[in-house]
What we know:
- There is one protein chain.
- The protein is mostly helical.
- It has four helices and no strands.
- It has helices spanning 16-23, 26-45, 62-73, 80-88.
- Helix 1 packs across helix 2 and helix 2 packs across helix 4.
- 0% of the residues are buried.
- The model has no long low-confidence stretch (mean pLDDT 77).
Amino acid sequence: MAALHLPRPHTEPLSESAITALFGAGVKARKNLAWAWLEEGRRRMKGLDDATENTQRMAIPVEVSLRRRLQWNEPVIDKLPEVGSVRVS
Length: 89
C-alpha cells in the first residue's frame, strides 16, 4: 500500500546551490528540473515506479491515467505556468 501514497513534499524550496548540484546552472537547471518533473509525471500516469520499471505492465484505463496526472500536479499547481514558460524558453 505504500506505493499508493505520494511522498510528503519539502516544506522549503531547494537552495540555488542544491538546484545547481542536481540539475545544472542557470536556465539549464530550470529546464532540466521541469523536464525531470514532467517525465516523472508521465511515468506515474503509466503506473511505473522503481519496482515496476522493468516488468511487464497491464493497460491502464485513460481515466486512471488522467487522475494520476492530476494528483501529480496538485502540489505544484501554482508553479505550472512557470514550468510552461521554462519549457519554451
